[in-house]
Design a protein that fits this description.
Layout lengths: L8 E8 L4 E5 L3 E6 L13 E7 L2 E6 L1 H4 L12 E6 L9 E6 L4 E6 L4 E2 L10 E7 L2 E6 L1 H10 L5 E2 L2
Parallel strand pairs: 5-7
Antiparallel strand pairs: 1-2, 1-8, 3-6, 4-5, 5-12, 6-7, 9-10, 10-11
């Protein structure tokens, strides 16, 4: 008699953006902070919104929607910055901030709750996978590619003045 595959539970956060939802494991998220207008930087891509101070550091803030080629998201009192722990950034880029439409929703996802949402060939380059969670579509972002874009523009964390 074959044993059933073990169910893996991953504590995650569902991040609401404008027009899409991302899902990331809790370990990828350092903190969720209130939105404050980032300090803009000249001659940078539109998706790089600028720097915000967090815990004595200037961290880069990005718009995932704009990285995907969509218009700038609306910012309002519910908007938040999701401080993301990088995978490849090391000391120069240990974090970056992601503009979100609201406070993320905590969830415990088990492997049976994540279902591929059909054909994956249409998934945009910065997205690893489209999934169904509670019968709603969400995306798993490709953190490596996001970090490559930050590195490609020499966007890094610096000490706050």
């Amino acid at each position: 008699m074959a044993e059933a595959a073990a169910t893996i539970v991953v504590r995650s956060q569902l991040i609401v953006l404008e027009g899409m939802r991302l899902v990331l494991p809790n370990t990828a998220i350092a903190e969720v902070i209130a939105h404050a207008e980032p300090e803009p930087v000249d001659n940078m891509p539109e998706w790089f919104l600028g720097y915000s101070v967090w815990r004595g550091q200037r961290i880069p803030i990005i718009s995932f929607e704009m990285m995907q080629g969509y218009p700038a998201p609306n910012v309002n009192r519910r908007s938040r910055i999701i401080v993301i722990n990088t995978i490849t950034g090391g000391d120069e880029r240990p974090f970056y901030g992601l503009l979100a439409a609201a406070i993320p929703r905590l969830m415990a996802l088990d492997s049976s709750a994540i279902i591929d949402d059909g054909d994956q060939s249409h998934v945009a380059p910065l997205l690893m996978r489209q999934v169904l969670i509670d019968n709603q579509s969400a995306f798993i972002p490709d953190q490596h590619k996001i970090e490559e874009m930050l590195e490609g523009h020499n966007i890094r964390v610096t000490p706050a003045d």
